[in-house]
Write a structure and sequence with these properties.
372 residues; mainly alpha; A middle domain of Talin 1; 2 domains; 2 strands
């Protein structure tokens, strides 16, 4: 999720506007090797490199690859739906959209590097959606092509624009209500979306597979003679830890916090499809995968191994906090939209758990690893 440059359809309090402005922004950061922390000059260690390489190869790369494949499947499902506009194909297209969300939301635990530098985050997942402009586009004579959406603002394309067309503003659209114009929109927008996911995959993939090799840059952080953009292992670890902290704060303070504080689901991401709880869960699962070094059938060393070697009690606490977050988010019922007004304690309890986990990374892990 990436915060837009403007908020044409929302009227926010000053406090809410401040949080929205910070929500997933893509402001440039200093070069990853830069820091005033003397720990950055620590000697390169093979054990640390093994952990970072396992995180890259067993977690980060596979999740990005899965996201790209799910996006390809979504594109194919939209083409099939356009060809045969049946209820079965409509449901398949909506499920394909949901299927893209899980790996993407897991990716949000590491939205640094290509996702930031190439502005791929806003291209695939800007929120809130600019419904006024989007509706104007649908009512215009513009010709929708992939290239048209390639250069459009993130707030009128990507996952949530596709979601809006498939579900409608109230989440109750039926296949017979999708117009020819909306099909034109879907076909072009999804093709553009698919190209952005392919760019993300290429950026992370090894050069041996025709990629740009960003994953190797992180794996080789601080390695003498490797030429990594990360001059020290500490710089690479800082990137990882900051990514985890950032998504946790976003989940607690923005994704949950803004609609909760405003008591208004107009601020809720993925509200058209009612997919908020699965999105939140996937965000935490992304954190868990990096921390534990596991994803699907892949298993290796994770950040946990590094923490455990230095402070076993902290590692145990963080593992417990991650599980608590998953348990409390799953307890938000019957849906996030309804819980905003009818089950507020469940949301607040979940937010507290996520904030506690974020604090553990921002304070305790950062101090332990010297990445502050």
């Amino acid at each position: 999720m990436n915060s837009p440059k403007y908020l044409p359809i929302l009227r926010l309090s000053a406090a809410a506007l401040l949080v929205f402005t910070m929500w997933g922004c893509n402001e440039e950061t200093p070069p990853p090797g830069g820091s005033n922390n003397n720990n950055n000059q620590a000697e390169w260690k093979q054990e640390t490199a093994d952990i970072m390489c396992d995180i890259v190869n067993n977690v980060m790369l596979p999740i990005v690859y899965d996201f790209d494949q799910e996006a390809a499947d979504l594109n194919a499902a939209i083409i099939t739906l356009n060809g045969q506009r049946t209820e079965q194909n409509f449901e398949a297209a909506k499920q394909a959209w949901r299927d893209t969300r899980r790996p993407w939301e897991m990716c949000e635990a590491y939205l640094f590097g290509p996702a930031k530098v190439q502005q791929l985050d806003p291209a695939v997942d800007s929120w809130p959606l600019d419904q006024i402009t989007l509706d104007s586009m649908l009512n215009s004579n513009d010709v929708f092509t992939k290239e048209y959406f390639d250069v459009s603002e993130g707030t009128v394309k990507g996952a949530h624009a596709i979601e809006y067309i498939l579900w409608g503003d109230k989440g109750d659209k039926t296949v017979d209500k999708i117009t020819d114009r909306e099909y034109q929109f879907l076909l072009a927008a999804t093709e553009s979306f698919r190209e952005s996911t392919a760019k993300l995959k290429k950026a992370w993939a090894p050069t041996s597979e025709g990629g740009d090799g960003y994953g190797k840059q992180l794996c080789d952080a601080g390695k003498p003679g490797a030429g990594s953009i990360y001059s020290t292992q500490t710089a690479g670890l800082r990137e990882i830890v900051t990514g985890l902290f950032t998504i946790l704060i976003e989940v607690s303070d923005a994704k949950m916090g803004i609609p909760f504080s405003q008591q208004n689901n107009d601020f809720e991401e993925a509200r058209f499809s009612n997919n908020s709880i699965p999105d939140f869960m996937a965000n935490i699962l992304g954190v868990q995968s990096i921390y534990m070094g596991t994803y699907g059938s892949r298993s290796g060393k994770g950040l946990s191994d590094l923490i455990k070697s230095k402070d076993a009690a902290l590692d145990t606490r963080i593992q417990g906090q991650i599980q608590t977050c998953l348990t409390r988010i799953s307890a938000i019922t019957p849906s996030f939209s309804e819980a905003i007004t009818n089950n507020r304690n469940a949301i607040q309890t979940a937010r507290f758990a996520v904030t506690e986990l974020a604090t553990s990374f921002e304070k305790d892990v950062s101090e332990l690893l010297g990445t502050k």
